[in-house]
Amino acid sequence: MKVTKEKAAEHRAAIVRAASRMFRERGFGGVGVAEITHEAGLTHGGFYGHFASKDALAAEACTQAFAGGHAKVMAGAPHDDLAAYLDHYLSPRHRDRCADGCPMAAYGSDVARQDKRVQARFTEGTERFVAALVERLPGAGEGKTGARRARAIAILSGMVGGLTLARATAKSDPRLSAEILESVRAQLTRLAGEAGLARPHAQFSD
Predict the structure, then answer these.
(1) Long-range contacts of the stretch 174-180 (C-beta < 8 A, 24+)
(2) Is 5-192 CATH 3.60.40.10?
(3) What does the domain layout of the chain look like in residue ranges?
(4) Average pLDDT along the chain, 206 residues, taken 10 residues at a time
(5) Is 143 left (phi over 0), alpha (psi -120 to 50) or beta?
């Protein structure tokens, strides 16, 4: 039976969603095409009707993973939600939810070994995060863009590094993992608020 264009688009989207979750949870090399298509509710045989290779799928899955995180950091009014975002990002809940969490923490150590297309999508996503954080820092639109960008890069690096370490130590030393989250969150909130960021009331949902 011939599949309609609409149904084919639904199948493709389902594969990308499944790959985005599974790659974040298990790494690019930790899951195969057959497992991804099965998770998407499809058969393995139809995969190559949608993607030329697993690398092509990985690139698209990477883009989708970044889109969700970018939407969260851009939500709400400028400046007043960055501290709340840090609370969300550096939390036990986010630490324990790799499959739908930050792609930078999930992919970071793995992406350098991937296809150039995957690396390019990862770089594009990271750049968008930096730009979003710049817009959330106090003083946006008032000059000193270079200084705000440097601070945004430092904050983002601390976020990703802190979450990565917290995940790596969570099972063997839960107390250390919690301490990492708390300490990094406090220091980055202070760094973000050096120009007078007020504590927010915004909430972020998963």
Answers:
(1) 177/95, 178/92
(2) no
(3) 5-192
(4) 80 94 93 94 85 94 85 55 86 92 90 93 94 80 74 95 97 98 95 58 42
(5) left
- pLDDT at res. 144: 60
Give the burial string for 89-106 (b: 16+ CB within 10 Å, else e).
bbbeebbeebeebbbbbb
Please count the CA atoms within 13 angstroms of the CA of 198 that sit on its side-chain side: 6
Backbone angles phi, psi at 80, to 5 degrees: -85, 0
8 A C-beta contact, residue 202 and residue 76 = yes
* pLDDT computed for residue 200 by the predictor: 39
